[in-house]
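Researcher: Here's the sequence for the chain we discussed earlier.
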Amino acid sequence: MSREYPDWISPERAAEGKREFGGTIPLAGLKRLAGLLADVRGEASFVAEFKQDPDQRVVIRLKVQAALPLICQASLEPFDQQVKRSSELAVITENSNLEELPDHYDAVRTENGRLAIARLVEDELLLGLPSYPRKPGVKKIEYSTGGQKTVVDGPGESNPGAGKKNPFAALGEMLQQKKQN
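Model: Thanks. This is the structure I predict for it:
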């Protein structure tokens, strides 16, 4: 693990000095993220650049990269999801008005005037997680739920007409029989 950053930072002082922090963080140390991973091996690398924008806001340009071990929701096989994110964060305080923040910034709130860089990195990795992890190269998956086969091409996509019967067909048949009697 490379450690070129403190646990807590005063974002105002870091921005005044145009400081840059970088390093790696073990995935096992990111508790909120670790519970979503198939394995906690590996680490995330990051670079955080502190500066002030023309309106004197404290801004952090954060770049994060990691290979996150996930379980493919189509094949149930483990794979490494490559996450590479870059964001511009504007530090806000209790008195800040979020409506005044330009759209290209994401807001980050300090805790007693300080920020934990590891938490910023963990937040970025959580935002980089896919809704439905899918191993690259997995094409079509066939599964059966009692005789009827369904083909899925991607997350949430099913192939209509792949042997599916209209769920209301039986109801229609019952109504027809009732009319005939």
